[in-house]
Write a structure and sequence with these properties.
The chain is α+β, with helices and mostly antiparallel strands. The protein is built from three helices and ten strands. A hairpin with a 2-residue loop joins β4 and β5.
Amino acid sequence: ISICLILLTGTVTAYALGYNLWGAIAVWTHDTFGFYSQERLQNQQPFPNLVAALSAYGIQDTLVPTWLPDGFEEDTLKITEDPKGVTFVSNCKVASNDIIVQITSYSSGNASNTIYETVGEKIRLYEVNGVEHYIMPISKQTRVLWICNNNECSIRCSLQDEDIYRMIDSIYER
């Protein structure tokens, strides 16, 4: 009984201090391991596009490509909130090809600690407007990663290099 009382007291104290000891579950595959917070809330409020959603959340940084290859249109937008910040995932689609733009805006005091899986060591650096963009192969796709203030940004696609560079450049052409 004393162990149960200590466990209950510790849980209540931690919760009062803002920690949810039981709010995360372990998730793993053969190659990766991580924790998934159950305290995530998905925003159901419809936004016409990613730029409008970022603006509604007060994010004014220039983060979204203005150019997409012919035929691509923003298909779905998913917004997830948790104690660390807000994640926006925009899926742009044409036929069976996707461009996924993901932006995680961390709350004040929270920093990115995301680890991405790469294939080999072929990470290329592409700098635009003083922002370093890391371009890396992942399976049959390419991922572009960059940080802007407290925003961690990612584009995942199966495009040719010239289209990837053009899409990155378009972020800063306003």
